[in-house]
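Shipment paperwork, digital attachment
Item: protein structure file
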Amino acid sequence: MFFRFLIITLLFFPPSLHAETPPSTPTLPTHGISIYGDLKYPETFTHYDYTNPNAPKGGRVRVATAGSFDSFNPFVIKGNPASGAGSLHCALLDQAMDEPFSMYGYLAEKVELAPDRKSVTFTLNQKAKFSDGSPVTADDVIFSFETLIKKGVPLYAQYYKDVSKVEKLGSHQVRFVFSTDRNRELPAILGQLPVFSKAYYTKHDFEAAELTPPVGCGPYKVKDFQAGQRVDYERIPNWWAENIPSQKGQNNFDVTYISYRDQAVQFEAFKGGDHDFRAENIAKNWAHGYKIPAVERGDILLKEISNKVPQGMTMLVFNTRKPLFKDRKVRQALTEAFDFQWVNKNLFFNSYKRSLSYFSNSDMASSGLPEGDELALLEPFKDKLPPEVFTKEYRLPISNGSGQDRRMIAKADQLLKEAGWVIKNGKRVNVKTGQPFEFELLLSDVAYERSALALQRNLKSLGLKMTIRTVTPSQYQQRASRYEYDMMSVIIPETESPGNEQRDFWMSSYADLPDGRNFAGVKDPVVDKLVEILINPPDRKTLQIRAHALDRVLLWGYYGIPEWHSDKTRFAYWNKFGRPDKAPKDGVGFSAWWVDSALEAKLKR
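Attachment content:
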């Protein structure tokens, strides 16, 4: 997923990385920045529409999380970070959740994009402080950038690889200079940069996986914790950013995260009142699991809300680094064998839609055949792409819902034979080597086994042996980071404005780097070029066209078995909360809720 740290450091960040530099002719400073179009909120805005500026502060909320933890640093490879650790820190800008990609002042109160788009300047809020009371300065910003590039998860080195240098313009002003003007989202994603205390990390090892709560500039600090089990965060009194527009009405209560290793245990704990909020992603629970007295008397409330959030792609990804899955026909055959209609009806109560795009529930999703500008973009690669890219609309098989549709099995069988895999003594073997077709599916929770068993049954009828192995979330993450799997269930998340992160997902240079997100191991020069083309569109319409082209090529590559998504957000919560009148695009906006002490006092747990 990423370049080696040493190469990145030498190529892009020479020893004299930054220097005191006089300010250049100033450009127009603004309170925010948008990749496409105008900002929704004017300079005079006081809060986001989906927050309540008068929300009361106080109370504690308990939230469940999966797996264990041994670190409070989510920015490095080592360790398993505690849920909520990101709330200890703050970023230069804050992303509004009701716009495609707009960032507003947070640690930086002003942002200035140069007219030639070759640099961006951030002016820090002079009231900003770390949790130890020390001020946040330009030195901390520069230290944070350099440290993340050299010591953070490799994502940062690639995310910010088009930054050529960083200049300190004053005690509270920093300029990032770019090596290109063809990375349209770079100014905005620099706004996502978390900022650390240089003084603190001069005395502490940034790369260490440890449970020493760090100094940060975010709204929370660690009050108490039990290693691997729970962590209590408390709001910082009179936090420096409490009343700035992008933070007003948010972070209204203390939070406790409770760790569970099993989804079923977690669900029962919620119903018993051990935690307060649950995002429900298990259809069986939603259909039958909430028929309990607490729901009947109104102590637990259930909400299902349509959302406009891109769902990305949930899939059973093939590890194409393994010889078994290098042949596209083999991958297509296994895709043909998955009976989604049976799974959706019998396991999920028809509550999901089949994912037909890597940009599901988004205007970035491809459809039909390529035409117009998209076709013109793909034409130069025609001899290197599957012919279906140009001649067929991407479709997944629709079964008769029996779980054993003979048409699907027959097509899968034919594809396997064409790929050199035949039946011998009841087993599927390679016609040349005699190697049996056997592999392992890696899962992180027993809740996912039911749909996997349906696939296993159909593969068995084809003479294939798929072993299902379920491990703890921590073990799953460790194996995923080292690419130690044949197939596994993953989510490829997407946003309304795909950009630099697509390098991490799909490019050849990222396929074998540690702790990466190119889970399939895609190494395709055409995909590499389409990703780079995607990153710098002149406008949103062009971004859509380029995303459609990339999506189409990836789909026909059969890099995984697409699963499902929902355009609804389902959640349950104990009736102790107040909520703003409006919600952001995800339909929830939990960070803007508050504890209603009167409601809480009435609960019967």
